Amino acid sequence: MLKYKAYKYYLAFLVLLLIALVIFHFTELTFVFNILDTYYVVLYSHITIFVSLIILVLGLVYWILHLSKFELIRSLSRIHTTMTIIGLFIFLIVLCFSEFISPIGTSSRFPLFDDTQNFEIILFWLFVVVMLAQLVFIINIIASLVKYFKKKINAN
């Protein structure tokens, strides 16, 4: 039976993000969104860098916990890893799809197919799913610490 090592999944996904970073760096595509009266313009390469840093930090945390022989609850680790990687992967795919729908963020190449509001709702819910996954990670660490210290107290 293969052992589950979450940090390996993060490192594999990080390689894919670095490939996406190279692609987005040369295309200089922008993502435009607004909050109230302010419009924000963000390069896709910057979004990819941010997502890559998140993945790198999470992978490093899992790797450090693995090296220190600290056991996390496996089912919660799988839930966290799956929700984070799939959520971020879908987020990047939706960003690529948005370029097809609306290349400058305001007007569409297809006037009858301008769903920028639906697009922003999808991105918001993907963000919520990824943040809930991080909450699962924090709960996993706390529950594992409680279990570890409870075992240590019972051993004495």
Strand-helix topology:
Elements: H1 6-27, E1 30-35, E2 38-43, H2 44-67, H3 74-101, H4 116-155
Helix pairs in contact: 1-2, 1-3, 2-3, 3-4
Structural commentary:
The longest helix has 40 residues, at 116-155. This protein has one domain (6-155). The chain has a two-stranded antiparallel ribbon with strand order 1-2. The protein is elongated. The protein has 156 residues and is mainly alpha-helical. The two termini are 33 Å apart. A hairpin with a 2-residue loop joins strand 1 and strand 2 (38-43). The model is unreliable at 101-112 (pLDDT under 50). The protein has helices at residues 6-27, 44-67, 74-101, 116-155; strands spanning 30-35, 38-43. Helix 1 (6-27) runs parallel beside helix 3 and helix 3 (74-101) packs antiparallel against helix 4.
Task: Quickly list its features.
single chain, 156 residues, mainly alpha, two-stranded antiparallel sheet, 4 helices, 2 strands
State the gist of this model:
The protein is mostly helical and 156 residues long. The chain is built from four helices and two strands; from the N terminus they run αββααα.
- The proportion of strand residues reads 5-15%
**Proportion of residues in helical segments:** over 70%
Estimate the mean pLDDT confidence: 76
Q: Describe the sheet with the most strands.
A: 2 strands, antiparallel
Order of secondary-structure elements: HEEHHH
Number of helices: 4
Spatial separation of the terminal alpha carbons: 33 Å
* Rg estimate, integer Å: 19 Å
The figure for the number of domains is 1
Shape: elongated
**Largest beta sheet: what is the strand line-up?**
1-2
Number of strands: 2
| Structural class by secondary-structure content | mainly alpha
Low-confidence stretches: 101-112
